[in-house]
Amino acid sequence: MGARCRRSMAFDCTPQPAAWCPDWMAGLPDALPLSHLSIPGTHDSLSLFGGRRLRCQSWGLESQLAAGVRFLDVRCKLVRGELHIYHLCTFQRASLRGVLRRTLRFLRAHPGEAVLMRIKEELPIFPQPGFAARLHRCLLEEGGGRVWCREEVPTLGQARGKIVVLEALAREVLGIPYEQLSISDAWNVLSLERKWARARRHLEKAAGGDPTTIHLTFCSEKLSPGLPKCEEWPQEQSHGKHSWAQCLLEGMPQDFLAGGEDIVCSTRAGPDWKHGSQW
């Protein structure tokens, strides 16, 4: 990324995050349902390879977690009997087993935290019939009782030290069903203004809506030709982009607002966050 790597209040594509919030959940009450929290996350969280058109992150998993990211978007393909991480057709040099182990290692070091993990099959032309069974086995073998695979939304106390699975399987329940979430994910962007207006409406809906429902707001985008990338926006535009989010956040450090063009936020309110986007 070379000279293009830089850090500002609106965008951070440097190798290490300025934010350092590994224990921000620890001081929150156990009784809070996760659906009452503002939780920052990343879209295509393990997409680090594939060049400018495919790479979605400049930070690795451990750096994201240390910065305060608590929602991971993990995309897998079943290849020769194992679940490997992919972005489209590009292997991301990681396996689901490895991602689970690394996340649980972080949670052992920071037991007051919880991580929501969306696990999906990446672009199946025909869904692999063994995907759900392999996912179930992987969660059992690697989870060690520290993976929440139930349908109901847990409280923070129930989720501390655990991975909370969000899944979109057709016939099995291995976590909170993804289709039960309130989701805003308009990724094919023709107008930045309409994109941010839609994201704002969804965040306002989250702030005033059903407190038992997880709201997930993606600010990720596939930019149409001619639209500026996030890091090319004027500074005053980038600051304005986040000013409304500052008014909506509940219990989330302000450092999380130093986001790039593709942040994900889950639950009550907040920005959808990816650092170092390259398209």
From TrEMBL:
InterPro entries: PI-PLC_domain (IPR051057), PLC-like_Pdiesterase_TIM-brl (IPR017946), PLipase_C_PInositol-sp_X_dom (IPR000909). The lineage of its organism: Eukaryota, Metazoa, Chordata, Craniata, Vertebrata. It comes from Athene cunicularia (Burrowing owl). Residues 30-168 form the Phosphatidylinositol-specific phospholipase C X domain. This is Phosphatidylinositol-specific phospholipase C X domain-containing protein. SUPFAM superfamilies: PLC-like phosphodiesterases. It holds the Pfam family PI-PLC-X. Coiled coil: none annotated. GO terms for biological process: lipid metabolic process. GO terms for molecular function: phosphoric diester hydrolase activity. It comes from the Eukaryota.
